[in-house]
Amino acid sequence: MLSRRRMMQGTAALALAGLPRAAFAQDQPAAPIVFVHGDSDAAAIWQTTFWRFESNGYPRDRLFAINFTDPQARDDDTIAQANRSSTQDQLRELTAFINGVKAQTGAAKVAIVALSRGGYAARGAIAANPASVSHAVLGGTPNHGVFAIDALLGSEYNGRGPFLMKLNAGDSEVTPGVPFLTLRSDGYDLYAQPDGRFIGHPGAPINVTAEGPALKGATNLVLGQVDHRGTACSPRAFAEIYKFIVGRAPARIAIAPEAEVVVNGLVTGVVEGTPTNRPVEGALVEVYRISAETGERQGTPAHAKKTGADGVWGPAKFDSISPLEFVVTAPGAPITHIYRSVFPRSFAQLNLRPSAAVAKEDSDATAIVRMDRPRGYFGLPRDIVLLDGKEPTDIPPGVPATWHTQLKLAAVEDRPIVGEFNEERIVARAWPAKDGHVTIIELTA
Predict the structure, then answer these.
(1) Does 54 lie in the same domain as 127?
(2) Beta strand 316-319 with 219-222: parallel, antiparallel or unpaired?
(3) Which stretches does DSSP call E strand in 54-179?
(4) In a domain, 235, yes or no
(5) In terms of domains, do 239 and 278 share one?
């Protein structure tokens, strides 16, 4: 094993030595890029995007991702709602974050890459200070609403509501002087659909089309049948984002491995069913190297730490050949076992959210195994999706509309539980629900 590890590390070193760096010479430093996540998400969603930028020689210290404190939108933008944010809350946080990046890097301008709701705050920040932004990329942002109807006018997602009407006013929908790129799906984005079935009103016309994310005055690209998150997080989206900001196509799409990997992030919480990015104090995080074939732990924890008030659970060092099990024991939450593929590169924004409380309808399960795809949605028949050797029945065919699939077991079986998504394969183990445990297979792709 040791000789194989050294061989792999040597291969990684060769790969890194070949990364293109000439484009980012000291006399022309790379522009800082601020990545902005969407509703209910966190900075961790940009993991593979960071890795692809780095694999093309983009300096790690020029890549930044915000964690909005309360990432979920209010039902009505004008009415306070616990653990949720208004459009003004998001604009204020993003503006402060951009100013912090500029101060840290000494750069006069930043580039912005935003997904979904994050594009609203990005557009607001650019309009308020266009001299601070060199490029803007919006992936899947519902710029003309998730719906456009005469009811629910307080929702920021209503194309006929005051928020979007003001944001889209004028002959051009972009801020002059800042190049904009919008990326959208060709009919596979659940938030750009003419029918209300994905927002709980099947058959109701909601006056939105697949062209909803496009903006007058921007470069508007259609990526094909990518899902909502894939408009910004997919390899296809990366190629366009990189080209737009850097000025040429990336040299590689594949992620180049590092010999040693340093991973860090926060433990954050789900409060009364609402996901937040607020740090959780007193959470124990244990990380185990596991067998890629059986999911069994390979010895004692490779890392263990209890979080302080800042919620930070790392940093932790690993090799780039071992899959991992993260165990998060946080106050008021199930003990959550998160199984992950090999980490080929370092990442400092790995937020760990323990599972929400088990739903009442699942209380009869002896064990619960969930498979998540944080950077995309499951699409059938577009994707190969297998959980414990079977195609899940809780994923509807057609437009990708869910990023979770769940397996309930009648007994805690001492055997591997395999999750597969296209070419990614993760092997996990089931843990007893009656003792407060939940298993999550978390996909990288």
Answers:
(1) yes
(2) unpaired
(3) 63-65, 110-115, 133-139
(4) yes
(5) no
Q: At what angle do helices 118-128 and 87-105 cross, to 10 degrees?
A: 60
Domain-located, residue 2:
no
* CA–CA gap between residue 372 and residue 44 (Å, rounded): 14
Q: Under a CB-based contact definition with an 8 Å cutoff, are residues 406 and 315 in contact? A: no
**Has residue 300 been placed in a domain?**
yes
Q: What is the rounded CA–CA span in Å between residue 257 and residue 52?
A: 10
- Residues 225 and 364 placed together within one structural domain of the fold: no
User: How far is residue 43's CA from residue 36's CA, in Å, rounded to a whole number?
Assistant: 7
HEC string of 80-116 equals CCCCCECHHHHHHHHHHHHHHHHHHHCCCCEEEEEEC
Q: Report the CATH number at residue 199.
A: 3.40.50.1820
- Residue 129, amino acid: N
Rounded to whole angstroms, the Cα distance separating 66 from 202 reads 35
Tens digits of per-residue pLDDT, 310-368? 999 999 999 999 999 999 999 999 999 999 999 999 999 999 999 988 888 888 899 99
Q: Which domain holds residue 132?
A: 17-246
**What pTM did the predictor assign?**
0.93
- If you write DSSP's letter for every residue of 240-293 in order, what string do you get? HHHHHHHSS--S-SSPPP-SEEEE--BBEEEETTEEEEEE-TT-EEEEEEB-TT
- Overall size of the chain counted in residues: 445
Is residue 12 assigned to a domain?
Answer: no
Residue 14 pLDDT level (bands cut at 50, 70, 90): very low
Torsion of CA 307, 311, 315, 316, to 10 degrees: 60
Asked which of 199, 215, 246 is the last residue of a domain, the reply is 246
Token readout for 170 is 């004028």
